[in-house]
Amino acid sequence: CGVAQAWWWHCKPLCRDGSMAVSADQVELLLEDGSAAVAAAAKRAAELKAGEIQWRSKLEFFVNGKQVSIADVEPHHTLLWFLREKLGLTGTKLGCGEGGCGACTVTVSNFDLASQTVVHRSVNACLAPVCSVDGCLVTTVEGIGTTQAPHPVQKRIADLHGSQCGFCTPGIVMSLYTTLSRNPQPKLADIEASFDGNLCRCTGYRPILDAAKTFAVDKAKCPSAPVGYEDSGNPEKEGEVRCCGSTHATISAMAADSKLKPAELPPALRSPEAAPLKVAGKSVTWYKPHDLASLLALKTAEPKAKMVAGNTEVGIETKFKHCEYPVMISTSSIPELQSIGFDSQGNLVIGGAVTLSKLEHFLEAAIEKKTKSAAQWLQAMLDMLRWFASTQIRNVAVLAGNIATASPISDMNPVLMTLGATVIMASARGAPREVAVKDFFQSYRKVDMLPSEVICSIKVPAPESDYEFVRSFKQARRRDDDISIVNSCLRVCLKPSAEGWFVTKASTAFGGMAPTTIRAKKLEALLEGSAWSKATLEAATQALTEELALPETVPGGMAAYRQTLAVSYFYKFYVAICLELEKLAASNASLPKPPAVSSSDASAAPTFLSEERPLTHGSQAYVIPSGGLQATGKAAERDHAPKAEDRRAPVGQPMAHKSALAQCTGEAKYVDDMPKLPGTLHSALVLSDRPHAKIRSIDTSAAEALEGVVRVFTGADVGEHENTWGPAYPDEELFRKETVTSTGQILGLVVAETLEAADRAVRLVKVEYADLEPIITIEDAIRTKSFKDKVLKIEDGDVDAAFALPDSVVVEGEIRMGGQEHFYLECNSSLVVPGEGDELTIHASTQAAMKTQKFAAHICGIPLSKVVCKVKRMGGGFGGKETRTVMMSSVVALAAHRLKRPVKINLDRDVDMWITGTRHPFLGKYKAAAGPDGKLRAVDVKLYANAGYSMDLTEPVMGRALFHSDGPYKIANMRVEGFMCMTNTASNTAFRGFGGPQGLLVAEAYVTHLANKLQMSPEELRARNLYALDGDRTHYYQLMEKCPLQRMWKELVTSSDYEARLAEVQSFNKTSRWRKRGIAHMTTKFGISFTAKFMNQAGALVHVYTDGTVLVTHGGTEMGQGLHTKMCQVAARAFNIPVDDVYIKETSTDTVPNSTPTAASASSDIYGMAILRACEEILGNLKPYLEKTKGSWKSAVSAAYFDRCDLSAHGFYATQGIGYDWTISDNKERGKPFNYFTYGDACAEVEIDVLTGDMRILRADLLMDVGNSLNPSIDVGQIEGAFTQGFGWAMIEETIWGCNEFPWLKPGSCFTRGPGTYKIPSFNDTPVDLRVTLVKDSLNPNAIHSSRAIGEPPFFMGAVAFFATRMAIESARQDAGCTSEFYQLDIPLTPERIRLACGDKYATQFSENMSRSRPSAFV
Hints:
By secondary structure, this protein is α+β, with helices and mostly antiparallel strands. The strands form 13 sheets. An eight-stranded mixed beta sheet has the order 27-31-25-38-35-36-37-46, with helices on both faces. A six-stranded mixed beta sheet has the order 6-22-52-51-50-42, with helices on both faces. Strands 2-1-5-3-4 form a five-stranded mixed beta sheet. α19 runs antiparallel to α40 and α34 runs parallel beside α35. Mean pLDDT is about 95; it is low at about 1-30.
């Protein structure tokens, strides 16, 4: 144990993510060479037989303070499975199964014998094998608090509106809890870094960060509230009270809480483990040896055994690639592999089992002791480590494992290769071997390592020269927790001379440019001996261009971008070193001057990854008005009749989500959390893997013969009628019988006693196909004329005549809009329980209880009256659970009906994303004209939507896109047509905005194009064409009434300080060549109501109980949007009782039948009115009793009961005056599609790194008209969440299917099937400064209590970042000498698209050689 004893560190200070910190004076020298100790261990191993080692067989650990001691555990089970299935601790969620979302985060604590301290780590329970927590304390969200006694973390996140759907919340709670356990005095920066492994799809992150920052000790560093957001009134006073909130005010008002204490480690875990562990399961045996000799002996006896540290790679392989590893060996308790330090030559030696977090914090402390120049090699490692995966992954993953897996895009391998690192390996069969990292990688995923060998350490040599310069680089789709597209580490040793600086040695390495991490040997040869000069820079760029050439068909795609990144990194490196040399020359006159770098070009040196990000902060403002209450036709002459009452509370009060605290404590239950009923069966889907083919045969015999399988259902088990379904057109099959028209279609359902058996059986089903030619993209559909036989069209005015006017300025163009995955954190889940006879009760995560009921009854051939669908809550929906959930719930209902046993299904993330569809990809083609005065004259738009293999909701999606293709602008002459393309991909479906964002984006595209042609700013053209307050009509002839767009535009210009900031941006861009900023301002209008008239109806049932409390049931479903909370406020106000006396249990079709899906942003409007109507009926019944009791609610209720008065009522509401008929030829006679509009205005400022394409939002100002808000806090949450989701659609999120644009993929295969390949915005994407204001004085007479719908309208405001980025790109193109002609940009505007659009020579030399003029895109 010589290596382990030679060095240690006492970890009392704590780090930014809550892991062990090392102070500078604790970085000690590794005094002893570990090679002798390794050799001694190898010698002992040769004499040791694995069978003679004394193993214990019981796994022992603690969960929430309670001991767990088991001998019959299966080692392949994860900690998450054990917590949920064996202990019933369902607060820890399964979100993705690959450690990419953080929903499964728990705290794992253990006693470190070397430092005699307790170590707390946040861990992904979905990846951690249950055996890996042997000897540890596991703390789950249930273990830190309850709703009755919440932990401060839980309470603050709930109180400060940090939980909406709540599915991600337990993981976020536990990440923050772990940080505070490790570091009870965190700084603001520590807080911001602690969530890099957690995702939230609802909130937009700002309220979570605010809640977390209340625990920071340096709150004074938080930026103060901006002018106008400082003082806040009391919302309970109402009557034009302005309420303001800000991050500064929020965190300053709460103490950091000095009483926070981590979970107490049981005494039993503080002593050394008695013996090494061996757990023999049915299919896997797990070993945890205690010393290196035992480990080497085991590897000799079991050379095919899989070494496991964090299981972050093996867990992915076993779950998604179905790899089987019968023997697994944990290295976590090998003291010889845990050391880290410097040897006597100053080399850094890293033990083979040192976690990345431990290495990260060691480096932080080591750098603190060195000068900046002397620490460059360590800084290069640290810069890469900080963005390596997530905190949860770094806490368990080890550097040796990352090296051994030999990923070609490993972040650390290029750094190690460039620094000349070596890998020291040992086995029981010989002396230790030392292999240079540059020679270690032999081919793709193949390394120079024998099966019996173990990586004992990695040695990184100290710098060779005083003038050694090192930088590391990485670019990914997203900064937080993302694998690299291309990474690199560059190093040169320079020598000063009278003639200047010369390169004496060069080392370079790149990842993402070949099947392995590679050196750029030609570049190194060119550099060595050359002067450090501009001429060398040009030659080096050319050498890199030739050496790292990629074919367009390269796996992973993005050939031009990847090559551009490689040369851009070198240019960044060159500039950074020149600037360093300039500083050295300034401080030492004897040194030569380096090549000159202009102040403008100096902006090339930094990257967003290496520089400190400004602290994020937010501000919110709204007015609490009085009045605006309404009555229904039950209590007045008509619906929405205004009431004279001024007092609105609790309506209009900023209350927290009713379920927030239960979500924060893990007590809120979702479908997969429901207690398992006796006899419950598990199911899994058999899915097609061909995009278009005839089915020759389906052989289920092997699957049915598998132990535990009860039955396999296929299309042969149902009739043609029962098998046919579709939400709008009956064009789908629940089970495909004769043909498949997309990958991921359901061929069968395996039902088994366990989920494991069901999953295994699915892989045994054999399907034979006869392939047919697939149609994948919109371009494919256009070429083959694969359209729905219906074209939607709206025409207003004389478009052609307007184009023909001699002074019309005319432009033509197109824009591609990619799909967007819903990425709700809770995947599709259903539990179907059979009852007496044909009764079925379906518990489903669905937005459409009625559809779920209807199609379950349909496939089973039973009446709807015998099927009940219940929805407690969803972990997000966003439209993705409006129709596509029916596929799963229906086939599971069939199984439960036939087998007479409960059956459940819970889709894995990769399956859910594959088969349920996305937002529709669109192609928009436009021709637009304006007069010389900038007034829009005519627009002709053709929209093409990729429907997928069925219509689903494509027709109404296209309709809404056409309705919104005018944007917020009055256009005198307009023609819009919509073509619905049928393709062989998953059927696309509803998503927040429902086609509206696609139409709005096309409008902004042609406005921006026209502005370019008119040589005016897009903002000026927008302002000139906004709809007027009254009198204008849309192209579908709906009258605009009390339209606030012009007023809002002026307000935001002032409040955002737009003009001054625009000047600042322009000034910045003039002096910065490689960093560019952009600012954009745009408005939005969004029509409210279902465009299908019959769907604008709602029902509710209200019960008043004898104690005066109220139970409300309505047809809407809760998915985090706060619908139930708002409805409780409406009922409480109607009865004039506390809102806590109103309760909504669930949505159920046996209490409110025939419910409309919760969608179209209209649920508060229609269900609020239905509830109000029911309340008014009860109030009518109670009127005499309230008069007798002088308004005493409880006394009146009691008196009414004893007088046999009905205290229950059903309410029904149907929106009046709307309906649009596409079949009528006269546009003016078709009707009114929308009840009203919700309006928004957004201004955003962004910054881009021209050389990488990375970007961030510096500031976003959002102004939203929500009328008289029902709950401003919930509305602000919806605005911020929608904005972030819209930003993701416009800038980050890219769906990819195999097609001619991505030839490296199998045609028709879905590539983006999880958080590893599909990126949604993360905490790091939060705008640095986010300001939200609600418009005052804007009553809406057409919705409940003068409010406006809010769910979807803010979404499109996220696209303001697209247009701000466009401005930044235009500045870069101008500097590059590009023409001022309009340049097409598609969405999402990813780093790849940003970089290649900038037009400089480093990018164009590659992009111009590609077969298409733009980056590949799937539409």
